[in-house]
Amino acid sequence: MKKTRSYRLNPALSYTNGNKMKKKSQLQIMQSTMILLLVFVLFAIGLIFFFSYQSSKMKEKEAEYADLEMIKKSQTLNFFPELQCSFDNIVDPDCFDMEKIESFIGYDEDYYYRRLLGNVKIVILKFDMENNAWFTGPDDLHPGIDWDGEKGFPIYNNEKEDGKYTKMKSVNLPISLYEPKTDRYYFGMIKYQVFR
Fold first, then answer.
1. What are the structural domain ranges in the chain?
2. Is-contact 93 78, C-beta < 8 A?
3. CB 169 within 8 A of CB 106
C-alpha cells in the first residue's frame, strides 16, 4: 500500500503570521527605498556644491588669463620698433619717439596691428612740468597731435565694431616721451584699455 502524503499547513505559517511577514517585507523594502533616495539626494547635493566650486574656480582662472592677456598686449607695444626710441641701433626701453608716434597714427585699420593687439585702445598722455599738469591743446611741433589733458591722445583705437563689450580692463604705465626736434624728454603715461 502506498503511503499518501498529506499536505497540511504548517501551524507557524497561518494566515495571521503570513500577513505579518508581508508587512515586515514591505517595511524593509520601504526602508531600502528611503535609504537609496537619501543617498541619491546627498549625492546630488554634493554634485551641486562641486560644480559651483568648479564654476567659481573657472571664473577666477578666466580673470587671471584676461589679466595676463592685458599685460602681454601692453608689453607688446613696448617692443614695437615703430614707436621705440633708438640711438645708433640701441633701443631705449619704455621710451617712445614722438615723431614715430605721429607717423603711427591711423594704423588701427591695419590687419597686422588688429591681429597683434586685438580689441584695445591705446592712449598717450604727456606731462607738462612747467604747468604741473597734463598737456592740453595742439602740439606745436606735431600738428597731427592734439592733447586732451587727462584723456590724452589716442594713438590706436580698435574697439569692438558694434561698440558693445562685456568687460573692459585698463592699465596705466609710466613712459618716457622723446622729442627729437628739441632733444628733450617728457614724462608720459600710456593707457591700455582692453575690451572683451
1. 14-55, 70-195
2. yes
3. no
CB-CB contact of 125 with 134 (8 Å):
yes
Mean pLDDT in consecutive groups of 10 residues from the start of the chain, 196 residues:
56 57 82 93 94 91 84 79 85 85 76 82 85 78 73 81 74 88 88 84
Residue 85 DSSP label: E
Q: How far apart are CA 140 and CA 184, in angstroms?
A: 14
Q: Which amino acid is at 34?
A: M
CA distance 127 to 104: 20
Helices (H), the chain: 15-78, 98-104, 111-117
pTM: predicted TM-score of the whole model, two decimal places:
0.65
Instruction: Supply 184's cell numbers.
Output: 628733450
| Pairwise CA distance, residues 129 & 48, whole Å | 59
Is residue 51 within 8 Å of 64, Cβ to Cβ? no
- pLDDT for 111 equals 78
SS3 content of the chain, % helix, strand, coil (to 5): 45, 30, 25
Residue 41's pLDDT is 95
Name the DSSP letter for residue 4.
P
